[in-house]
């Protein structure tokens, strides 16, 4: 047993020296877990944030002015006033995402209970902002119109002038009170990077041994295929886990100011189990290829499936039931659920242990399958 541990340790040191001697690989790892996380977290926002708006006021009444004054930051920029003839050219030029058109006699029709219409033109090329922003604008306009109509008609109101409502709603947004997309995107990007680099680095390490002819040297040494596999998994997994920890600490918490509610130690323990499974997956994929080009072509669709269908991009509940069940054979959905529970909801081991157990079982299965394929590969080479 001690001899096997010594063999694995010696091979791990060899792998770490190979990684250290590859500056491009180190630069890629550093970039992936630093600026790439920041860029994805802050560059692809889905919430409404200072969206450009304009108003075509054909009524020029007190009510139309109140509507314009109610459209405020941080959701929207203060609206610019344009003419009806400028709607098409300004939206064609991309100057405004929303243009609100208030028709003539709007205030008079509201007071007379004639239910007038307001037209909201939206640029749906920014589909998330258009959908959410349109709902916000409707809510703002409805509140202003309802308050104004109630006051003008003399109906029972509160001291502030708003109509008395039968129900008072208290909305509590949990785990992300400001609805910031970077709070979600940053952590999910760290998880995606762990997946991507674990698969690529371990698979590339095996392919590199073949292309350089050093796999024959390993076969001449008194080591087993399992020890060779384990050394590549440990060395590359160690580098990735260290990079992931620094990314969560420095990029997510310090740079992006994202609060981590749960235990980072528990998260890293789960990341260790997860990294073992995806590094084993990388070796498994490498055993089906003979060159880096083939490996790259095989890895790309696998990574796309793992990232798009794991719950990190869209909730698992939005997928067909058969697809949800099919994704359970991969470790990524379980790690995404584990990470969200620990980092966002401060879940403890008593809550997330089922996900850890499933990841451990999947890791053992992947390692056994990879070892079997790897042994067959070595037999062919011999």
Structural class by secondary-structure content: mainly alpha
Q: What would you report as the Rg, rounded to the nearest angstrom?
A: 29 Å
Distance between the termini: 26 Å
**Main beta sheet strand tally, sense and closure:** 4 strands, mixed
**Biggest sheet strand line-up:** 2-1-3-4
Q: Level of helix content?
A: 55-70%
The helix/strand order is: HHHEHEHEHEHHHHHHHHH
Low-confidence stretches are: 161-170
Overall, the morphology is elongated
How large is the count of helical segments?
15
Number of domains: 2
> What is the residue-averaged pLDDT?
85
Strand content: under 5%
How many β-strand runs? 4
Structure overview:
- The chain is mainly α and 382 residues long.
- It has two domains: 1-44 and 185-381, no CATH class; 53-149, 3-Layer(aba) Sandwich (abc type-2 transporter like fold), CATH 3.40.1710.10.
- Helix content is 65%, strand content 4%.
- Strands 2-1-3-4 form a four-stranded mixed β-sheet, covered by helices on one side.
- α4 (62-70) links the parallel β1 and β2.
- The longest helix is centred in the last third of the chain and has 33 residues, at 349-381.
- The protein starts with a helix and ends with a helix.
- Residues 161-170 have low confidence and may be disordered.
């Amino acid at each position: 047993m001690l001899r096997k541990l010594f063999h694995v340790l010696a091979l791990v040191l060899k792998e770490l020296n190979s990684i250290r001697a590859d500056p491009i690989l180190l630069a890629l790892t550093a970039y992936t877990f630093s600026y790439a996380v920041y860029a994805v977290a802050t560059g692809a926002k889905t919430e409404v944030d200072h969206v450009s708006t304009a108003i075509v006021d054909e009524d020029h009444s007190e009510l139309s002015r109140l509507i314009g004054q109610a459209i405020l930051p941080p959701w929207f920029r203060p609206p610019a006033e344009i003419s009806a003839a400028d709607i098409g050219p300004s939206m064609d030029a991309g100057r405004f995402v929303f243009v609100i058109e208030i028709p003539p006699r709007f205030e008079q029709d509201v007071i007379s209970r004639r239910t007038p219409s307001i037209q909201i033109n939206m640029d749906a090329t920014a589909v998330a902002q258009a959908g959410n922003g349109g709902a916000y604008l409707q809510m703002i306009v409805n509140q202003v119109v309802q308050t104004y109509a109630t006051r003008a008609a003399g109906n029972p109101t509160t001291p502030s002038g708003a109509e008395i409502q039968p129900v008072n709603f208290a909305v509590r947004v949990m785990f992300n009170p400001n609805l910031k997309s970077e709070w979600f995107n940053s952590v999910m990007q760290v998880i995606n990077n762990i997946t991507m680099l674990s698969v690529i680095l371990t698979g590339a390490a095996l392919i590199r041994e073949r292309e350089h002819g050093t796999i024959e040297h390993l076969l001449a040494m008194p080591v087993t295929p399992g020890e060779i596999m384990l050394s590549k998994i440990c060395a590359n997994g160690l580098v990735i886990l260290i990079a992931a920890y620094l990314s969560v600490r420095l990029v997510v918490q310090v740079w992006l100011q994202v609060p981590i509610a749960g235990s980072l130690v528990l998260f890293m323990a789960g990341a260790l189990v997860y990294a073992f499974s995806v590094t084993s997956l990388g070796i498994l994929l490498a055993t089906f290829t003979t060159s880096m080009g083939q490996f790259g072509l095989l890895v790309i669709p696998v990574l796309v499936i793992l990232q798009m269908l794991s719950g990190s991009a869209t909730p698992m509940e939005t997928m067909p039931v058969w697809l949800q069940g099919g994704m359970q054979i991969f470790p990524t959905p379980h790690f995404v659920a584990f990470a969200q529970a620990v980092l966002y909801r401060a879940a403890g081991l008593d809550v997330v242990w089922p996900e850890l157990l499933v990841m451990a079982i999947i890791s053992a299965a992947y390692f056994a399958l990879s070892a079997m394929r790897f042994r067959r590969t070595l037999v062919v080479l011999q």
